[in-house]
Amino acid sequence: MTTEETHIPATQEPANAPGRAEIPVEGRAGADVASGANEFISWGARSDVGLVRGHNEDSFLLRTPLFVVSDGMGGHAAGEVASSIAVETIGERAPGTADDVLLGAAVEAANASVIKAAEEGVGKPGMGCTATAVLIEKNKMAVAHVGDSRVYVLHHGTLVRITHDHSYVEELVDAGEITADEARTHPSRSIITRALGSDPDMYADHFSLEVNDGDRIILCSDGLSSMISDSEIESVAVSSATPQQAADNLVSAALTAGGADNVTVVVVDVLDDGLVDEVRKRIAKSVAGIAAIIIGIALVVALIAFTFIRGEWFLGINNGTVGLYRGVQGSFLGVPTYELVGTSAVNVSDLPVAIQDQLEQGIRVNGEDAGREVINSYHQQIDEEKLRAAEIAETARSETETPADAPEDAPANTPQDAAPEGGQEEQPAEEPEAPAPEQTEQTGAESQDGGE
Question: Which residues are listed as membrane-spanning (predicted)?
Fold first, then answer.
């Protein structure tokens, strides 16, 4: 299937040829201009009837993030009908995301709508149009395309055409028979090999590609690409600060070069491709995942530690007495890792010094029952020590009361041996015999002699 688009020959001359006055676009009758921006993209568009045609058959759609350009064919009051039906249908059927398959299906639905409209008497039989659509979602751009309208991407100052013309001259270029510059002035450049409006089985080219911050996307009808070369498009696009300025300057360049056809240009700048935010989210997600893993491990460790602590028992000091504790002596983050389970009347001071030192550090026991048994043993030990001390004290007291040097078998004192209180022995009351006087005197004399 081929469709011929009417073109009026124009003398081709570089837009920047010496002495050529640039044709301004501001204030031109019938011009259609629109622009806008959001946090991700900004855009500008201009459509002009040109310097030769009597009316504008081009249509464009700016329905963020969808952008469409359609170049009508079929003569007066027909091409513009076809192009307007096409952009309206694509706008209704386009997906909400950058899905090129669904976007291509929307273009194919537009083809059916144009055919149906012609059958129902809307427009003219044989009317048709091109359709070039892009849908930009962060760093992904879906493209669907039929005809010879084009999509360019200006990336780091270099212009790249990403669509393939469905035209006879493009086939000649592909075959190497003519160059791209020769195709712009070739007599058969108006023959379109695929378009909307005639073939119910028409299919759209569709694909996706990545775009990045700073990229500039240009959609245009052949009223631009047939007037100036790709290198000139690149030069104007690079030197224009905003999308609207770029659209205006490109239309002006096409008019300056002859304006032989309607010219429509839509320019979209990528401000934020979402990659930084995506990386930030990915990092946050990774950090959250790592944190979750760490928290999970910490919880498992805490559970194990809690289980271990709950299974430990020890004896320690509780206000000067021996206490039974559950857990491990110490604290974690200022929280004690033990609890008092049982008290006792065992005074720590009553225990040996070695045991007192051990209680200061905590004496580990194998369970509550074992701990209570140890406390009972302390009770018993203290009681035994007290009993032993009492026995020793009693023995010492008994020894003090009995003289240490008295013979165990000494006989009792007889009355004769007992001394009277005056220290003199008591004599029996017998009357002494009166001695003879002589004897008495003699004895006294003897006594005196002895005394001498």
Answer: 287-309
